[in-house]
Design goal:
This protein is of the alpha/beta class and 223 residues long. The longest helix has 13 residues. It is globular and about 50 Å long. It starts with a strand and ends with a strand. The relative contact order is 0.19. The mean pLDDT is 96. It binds S-adenosylmethionine. S-adenosylmethionine binds next to helix 1, helix 2 and helix 3. The site of S-adenosylmethionine has 20 residues, from helix 1, helix 2 and helix 3.
Length: 223
């Protein structure tokens, strides 16, 4: 199987991306557990993909929700979302401090270096705002999990993933002026049992119980 660069991979995945996976379901669950208030907040979703999480931000009362993604084919699937832009996480087309909540969910593993993205996430964040990052968990990569998907024709592909451990995230964020306030792991467990059941992989589920698949970190701007 060839390993695809993000722009190429997500262009292929875009038509079927709305189907949730075990990883995306865990991402949603750990972000919910961090319980960041969204009411009346300006939310920026960096690497928003098809913008499905922006819908939940608007439903939670965000006063404004902007999605930015590198892959135009992903944005093209974001039907009904008014505020979207195609851009790179490392060069965000937004004003300094313009957002109260900055999300970057399941994106940074696609970047070889973290610091340029963290600099931009920090720059976009208001002085009393927060930055919420999730990533494919380093423990999952170490256990042999890969970021794979099937295209519309059913062919399996692997996406390029760079493993960044918690310390790498923490220090890149600190150099950008962000301090880590909370961290949470999304682990194989009841929340995602159905994904294994539907794939006929309950044996693997039992073996992997407790394995973290998603790393979530909540940062705030340093004073
Ligand atoms: C796993 S998807 C996550 C999408 C969305 N955050 C979600 O949770 O549904 C990763 C997304 O990151 C985007 N991406 C990858 N590299 C990027 C970059 N350098 N700048 C902006 N977006 C990027 C991809 O196009 C893709 O839509």
């Amino acid at each position: 199987m060839t390993v695809l660069a993000p722009a190429q991979g997500y262009a292929l995945w875009a038509p079927t991306y709305s189907v949730e996976t075990a990883v995306s379901a865990l991402d949603a669950s750990v972000v919910a557990s961090l319980d960041v208030p969204l009411r009346d907040k300006r939310v920026l979703d960096v690497g928003c993909g098809i913008a499905r999480r922006l819908v939940s931000a608007r439903e939670a009362g965000a006063s404004m929700a902007l999605g930015i993604d590198l892959t135009p084919a992903m944005l093209a699937q974001a039907r009904g979302e008014p505020l979207l832009a195609a851009a790179d996480a490392r060069a965000l087309p937004v004003a300094d401090g313009a957002f109260d909540v900055v999300w970057c969910r399941l994106v940074l593993g696609h970047l070889p270096a973290l610091e340029p993205a963290y600099r931009e996430l920090a720059r976009a964040c208001a002085p009393d705002g927060v930055v919420l990052v999730t990533d494919f968990h380093p423990a999952a990569a170490a256990a042999g999990h890969r970021r794979t998907f099937r295209d519309e024709g059913g062919e399996l592909h692997e996406l390029e993933n760079h493993v960044h451990d918690v310390d790498a995230h923490r220090s890149a964020a600190a150099r950008a002026g962000l301090s880590l306030h909370e961290r949470c792991d999304g682990e194989v467990g009841e929340t995602i049992r159905d994904f294994y059941a539907r794939a006929g992989k309950l044996d693997a589920y039992e073996q992997q119980l407790g394995l973290p698949l998603v790393l979530a970190m909540l940062f705030a701007r340093e004073e």
